[in-house]
């Protein structure tokens, strides 16, 4: 093919005279005039050109070096040598049998080439990238000469695309012919082995006639493979071995079903491991539908079987070639890396490195490689706002400055803003190194980025172009050496279908690598080591893959890559766009489903992040609840959270920097916790469930459209009926996880502990797989379940999760709680707070889209100032006689038990105060007419609550004949409810002629401007009861008391003393207090935590002077039941009845939150506490020593 070296100049001169057209392999339309010989293809041209694989840029001769094209292509040219060839043919034979892949080719003279016959054979798919990137979208591209069309057929490694052929056969293509020069000096004879059955070609004199696309250049047809010549062994790039396996007829017969990509998709659906998996849920068994491919893909049975049968039997440690296991494993690693090179279009100048666990390790390694040992080079990193944490956080430790580039309304990178940022960096920092780190696809929205456009701009400013292909690699082409080559890219192997547990991949230009030492020093990274020194390997691919290589993972990744290319990147693109359009169109019909990100449906993957808004409120449903509901009802596996792209997720949600810091302060774990000794398995706080997030769903391209429609229908159902099921679920405030109340234990868990190794083999606990219904049946069943769940809402049994939120962070709660839905269903006019953030609205963009979906964000009203100032409905109030909150965290231990009772000293202290005689007395009017009695605003309590109160009264004989009972009325919901309950009990006793007692009320006004209980005077007058209103400037006295550490403790002691003194003064013998079961439980934990005592408020006791009995009839009633009663009956509750307690979060308030959080996980918590506290409730002594003795005795007697 070449002249001898001595005559190369002559050849070059003649070649230069040729026109550009003579350097290319052209096909001519039949009937055109004959071209002169000097315009025909000459034998001194590149072999690739002769094969129609691209034009030659310059002549090929023995003095020039051809590195990549020839060296990669020649091993796969099917050729044979004439027996009478010259001696120099041996050089050609050596070149063919042991091709120097990615090395220089030895000079070959024309005499050496003269004896070589070329046959157009199948080109291995791994090397198609050498010319594939130069192809255009269409099959035909007109050249400068109107009569000549260069052949550029699309590549399909698994056979002709029959649909494509049929479409082009009639309307685009006419008969073709081509000729190769028969120059006797440079003889190159082409023998094309094609059958008419495959290509419609018939051989004529000196030419070949075509009636369809000449796929012989790109496909392995049956006739070609059947020929004897085609059965010769093809050689591949390898070390330690000789030949690439035969391509036999049997192999072709087995692969006939793979010619159609859609048949391959059907095979993938059936071969996916887990496609028939069944989960056990609270609503019955469900088939697992995996929709989280963006996070991690799944395995395929055929790939795993191949690994089990072919890879693992010959598995051994790499870095050796003297044993069959080591050699085979090393070859697998080389071949796997070659697959990556083929997919991405890498060449000699590029390094491909397996990096361990995904993209995170790849970026960390890249940061290391870009730094010299001195490590003093300043760098500015420019990135998009869409970056994953993996492509953001590692650069922060390297960069002198981080700059972000905004996005357009379409979700693409704002190229104008990128240019402006680059210009500003150059103006401010001069020739500083600039690194552009961008993602090829957002893992939150699925929007694809124009890689080439961004790279061109970066290169124009001499910036390094680095790309994160983690979310994009499984679905789009990767062109590392395109029109504008990239400098580095990385992706995660585990995201490719079939690539489970495979390593990450880093591809980087060699000229960028500055590090000379490995990031991880150890075995496999050194050339030689002695006692005093070490010499590291110079080849970065070997130096940075130290230790035992993940050969099995690399093979799995290579097979996943082959499967992707077998389906075809164009096919995947069409499927992804079809699914995206389908999903967007359906989701648009769901009123309360808010999609995050731009509305464009072109140029994106079917990855959707969304929130579901609660009907009739400004709040959303928690993302974890939506995810678990899709799981339990339909088996659909989604992902909830921020998907490791926090900054972009917050922008999508509409969270600014200030609000973001508020969330951090709320959910951050206390730095004072001893993580080591507490054995905390995660980092969390009691407010973790406030962390904002959303639900993400992704659709694999091989799903059928019916599967897609079923999943969309399931999401729409959950959006419509989420409120029906909410009361059945509990949230763990420490993790933010939601679980069905009957599914707190993972019933379907697989345990390693069940595995036993026995002489007869591995044994484990057998799992019975139940029968499951299809998705349509699940949808019908879900309708029935929604109706049943909606009808089962019982307000009294739903924990009030509002008190689980620290009051300081109340405004950060952006999701609705079960109690709020239940109150709405019960007709309560409860005002819900506004959402603290509003998702960003993207405006319409000039592409095909579903614009109506943008309007959904308009329906979310912005939080008003009134919403911000509005008091929470779950505010903890200081009820009844005793101040239940300790407002100083540094209070003495004595202050922790201020609510136990009253004694003589407290009464004496009160009597010494100057304002003792300030009181208002309301006397009961006897013998009222029945008409006047009916006008009184007495309320009848619910039967369940009333029964709990009367059971306690009867069991402990709290009220006896002749008692004069004073209800300690503070104006709170508890004491007001107690007054009405005891009044109803009195009426029932009078009617039954049983216990006869008098009923009155008493209030102590501590003299605070914020607390005004005076309306109670008129209210009690209307009720016609004996009422005593005692005024005492307790707050003023507290201000005058030096060294007072707790206003609450002082206030409680003074109020108790005033109550006792007033009751005795007016001749009443029983004080009825309104503490409930929640109060008793909180007091128990406060006493245990602060005083080390097993004590709580007593159900009843007698004061030390035996003049007064104190009773608590509500000890078995829950606080939420009293709240519901007070709200339903519109009792005149006095707001903020203990203002000093609301200055800060008190210890009692923290205990209340703790119990509320635990109740969300264990709904029967207070029933258990009631049983546990019963021995302490029955203590009747007012003396501390006797109280403890009785408590211990009661515990012993109850055990």
TrEMBL record:
Gene Ontology MF: a single term: transcription coregulator activity
Subcellular location(s) per record: Nucleus
Keywords: Nucleus, Transcription, Transcription regulation
Main location (coarse class): nucleus
Lineage, uppermost ranks: Eukaryota, Metazoa, Ecdysozoa, Nematoda, Chromadorea
One Pfam family linked to the record: Aminotran_5
GO biological process: regulation of transcription by RNA polymerase II
Record's GO cellular component terms: mediator complex
Entry-linked InterPro entries: Aminotrans_V_dom, Mediator_Med19_met, PyrdxlP-dep_Trfase, PyrdxlP-dep_Trfase_major, PyrdxlP-dep_Trfase_small, Rossmann-like_a/b/a_fold, TilS/TtcA_N
Biased composition (Polar residues): 1-12
Record carries keyword Transcription: yes
Ranges for domain tRNA(Ile)-lysidine/2-thiocytidine synthase N-terminal: 964-1135
Domain named Aminotransferase class V: residues: 289-651
Organism of origin: Caenorhabditis briggsae
Region (Disordered): 1-20
Protein name: Uncharacterized protein
């Amino acid at each position: 093919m070449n002249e001898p070296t001595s005559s190369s100049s002559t050849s070059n001169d003649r070649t230069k005279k040729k026109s550009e057209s003579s350097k290319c392999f052209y096909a001519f339309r039949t009937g055109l005039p004959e071209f002169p010989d000097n315009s025909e293809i000459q034998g001194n041209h590149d072999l690739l050109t002769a094969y129609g694989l691209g034009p030659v840029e310059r002549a090929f001769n023995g003095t020039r070096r051809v590195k990549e094209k020839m060296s990669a292509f020649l091993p796969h040219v099917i050729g044979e040598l004439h027996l009478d060839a010259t001696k120099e043919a041996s050089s050609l034979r050596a070149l063919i049998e042991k091709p120097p892949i990615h090395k220089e080719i030895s000079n070959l003279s024309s005499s050496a080439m003269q004896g070589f016959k070329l046959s157009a054979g199948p080109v291995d798919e791994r090397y198609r990238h050498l010319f594939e990137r130069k192809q255009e979208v269409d099959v035909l591209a007109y050249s400068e000469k109107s009569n000549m069309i260069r052949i550029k057929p699309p590549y399909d490694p698994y056979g002709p695309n029959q649909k494509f052929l049929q479409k082009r056969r009639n309307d685009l293509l006419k008969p073709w012919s081509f000729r190769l020069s028969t120059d006797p000096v440079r003889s190159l004879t082409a023998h094309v082995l094609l059958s008419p059955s495959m290509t419609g070609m018939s051989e004529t004199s000196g030419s070949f006639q075509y009636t369809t696309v000449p796929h012989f250049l790109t496909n392995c047809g049956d006739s070609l493979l059947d020929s004897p010549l085609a059965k010769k062994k093809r050689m591949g790039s390898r070390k330690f071995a000789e030949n690439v396996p035969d391509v036999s007829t049997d192999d072709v017969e087995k692969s006939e079903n793979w010619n159609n990509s859609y048949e391959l998709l059907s095979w993938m659906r059936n071969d996916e491991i887990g496609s028939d998996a069944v989960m056990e849920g609270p609503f019955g068994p469900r088939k697992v539908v995996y929709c989280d491919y963006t996070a991690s893909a799944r395995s395929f049975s055929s790939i795993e079987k191949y690994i089990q049968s072919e890879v693992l039997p010959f598995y051994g440690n790499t870095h050796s070639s003297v044993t069959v296991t080591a050699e085979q494993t090393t070859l697998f690693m080389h071949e796997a890396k070659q697959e990556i090179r083929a997919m991405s279009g890498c060449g000699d100048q590029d390094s491909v490195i397996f990096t361990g666990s995904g993209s995170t390790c790849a970026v960390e390694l890249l940061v290391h490689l870009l730094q010299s040992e001195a490590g003093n080079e300043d760098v500015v990193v420019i990135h998009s706002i869409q970056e994953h944490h993996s492509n953001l956080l590692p650069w922060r430790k390297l960069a002198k400055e981080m700059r972000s580039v905004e996005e357009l309304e379409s979700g693409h990178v704002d190229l104008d803003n990128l240019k402006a940022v680059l210009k500003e960096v150059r103006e401010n920092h001069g020739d500083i190194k600039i690194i552009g780190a961008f993602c090829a696809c957002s893992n939150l929205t699925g929007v694809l980025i124009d890689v080439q456009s961004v790279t061109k701009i970066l290169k124009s400013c001499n910036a390094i172009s680095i790309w994160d292909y983690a979310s994009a690699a499984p679905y789009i082409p990767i062109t590392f050496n395109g029109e504008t080559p990239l400098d580095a890219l990385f992706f995660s192997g585990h995201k490719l279908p079939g690539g489970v547990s495979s390593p990450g991949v880093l591809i980087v230009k060699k000229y960028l690598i500055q590090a000379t030492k490995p990031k991880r020093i150890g075995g496999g990274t050194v050339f030689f080591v002695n006692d005093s020194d070490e010499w590291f390997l110079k080849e970065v691919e070997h130096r940075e893959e130290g230790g035992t290589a993940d050969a099995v993972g690399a093979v799995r990744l290579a097979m996943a890559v082959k499967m992707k290319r077998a389906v075809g990147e164009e096919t995947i693109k069409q499927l992804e766009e079809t699914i995206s359009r389908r999903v967007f169109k359906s989701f648009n019909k769901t009123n309360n489903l808010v999609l995050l990100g731009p509305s464009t449906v072109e140029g994106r993957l079917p990855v959707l992040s969304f929130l579901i808004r609660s009907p009739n409120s400004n709040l959303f449903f928690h993302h974890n609840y939506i995810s678990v509901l899709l799981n339990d009802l339909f088996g659909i596996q989604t992902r909830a959270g921020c998907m490791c792209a926090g900054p972009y997720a917050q922008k999508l949600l509409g969270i600014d920097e200030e609000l973001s810091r508020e969330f951090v302060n709320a959910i951050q774990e206390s730095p004072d916790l001893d993580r080591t000794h507490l054995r905390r398995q995660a980092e969390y706080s009691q407010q973790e469930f406030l962390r904002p997030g959303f639900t993400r769903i992704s659709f694999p391209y091989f799903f059928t459209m019916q599967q897609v429609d079923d999943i969309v229908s399931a999401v729409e159902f959950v959006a419509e009926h989420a409120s029906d099921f909410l009361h059945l679920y509990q949230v763990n405030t420490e993790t933010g996880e939601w679980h069905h109340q009957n599914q707190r234990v993972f019933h379907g868990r697989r345990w390693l502990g069940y595995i036993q190794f026995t002489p007869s083999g591995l044994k484990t606990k057998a799992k019975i797989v139940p029968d499951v219904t299809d998705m349509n049946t699940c949808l019908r069943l879900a309708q029935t379940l929604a109706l049943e769940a909606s009808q089962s809402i019982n307000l009294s049994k739903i924990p009030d999760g509002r008190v689980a939120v620290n009051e300081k962070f109340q405004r950060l709660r952006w999701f609705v709680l079960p109690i709020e839905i239940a109150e709405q269903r019960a007709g309560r006019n409860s005002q819900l707070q506004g959402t603290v953030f509003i998702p960003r609205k993207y405006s319409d963009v000039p592409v095909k889209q579903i614009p109506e979906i943008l309007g959904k964000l308009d329906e979310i009203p912005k939080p008003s100032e009134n919403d911000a100032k509005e008091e929470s409905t779950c505010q903890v109030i200081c009820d009844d006689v005793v101040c239940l909150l300790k407002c100083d965290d540094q209070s003495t231990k004595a202050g922790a038990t201020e609510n136990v009772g009253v004694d003589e000293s407290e009464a004496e202290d009160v009597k010494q105060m100057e304002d003792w005689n300030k009181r208002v007395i309301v006397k009961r009017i006897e013998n009222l007419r029945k008409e006047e009695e009916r006008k009184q605003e007495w309320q009848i309590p619910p039967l369940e609550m009333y029964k709990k109160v009367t059971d306690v009264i009867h069991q402990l004989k709290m009220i006896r004949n002749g008692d004069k009972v004073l209800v300690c009325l503070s104006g709170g919901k508890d004491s007001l409810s107690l007054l009405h309950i005891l009044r109803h009990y009195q009426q029932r006793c009078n009617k039954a002629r049983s216990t006869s007692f008098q009923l009155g009320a008493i209030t102590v006004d501590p003299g605070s401007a914020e607390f005004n209980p005076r309306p109670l005077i008129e209210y009690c007058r209307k009720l016609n009861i004996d009422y005593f209103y005692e005024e005492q400037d307790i707050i003023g006295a507290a201000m005058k008391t030096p060294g007072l550490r707790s206003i609450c403790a002082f206030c409680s002691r003074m109020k108790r003393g005033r109550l006792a003194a007033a009751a005795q003064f007016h001749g009443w013998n029983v004080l009825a207090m309104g503490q409930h079961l929640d109060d008793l439980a909180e007091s128990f934990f406060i006493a245990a935590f602060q005083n080390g005592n097993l004590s709580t408020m007593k159900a009843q006791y007698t004061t030390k002077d035996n003049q007064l009995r104190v009773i608590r009839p509500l000890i078995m009633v829950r606080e939420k039941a009293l709240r519901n009663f007070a709200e339903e009956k519109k009792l005149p509750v006095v707001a903020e009845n203990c203002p000093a307690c609301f200055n800060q979060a008190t210890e009692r308030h923290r205990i209340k939150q703790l119990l509320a959080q635990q109740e969300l996980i264990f709904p029967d918590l207070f029933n258990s506490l009631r049983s546990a506290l019963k021995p302490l409730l029955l203590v009747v002594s007012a003396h501390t020593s006797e109280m403890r003795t009785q408590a211990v005795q009661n515990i012993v007697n109850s055990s």
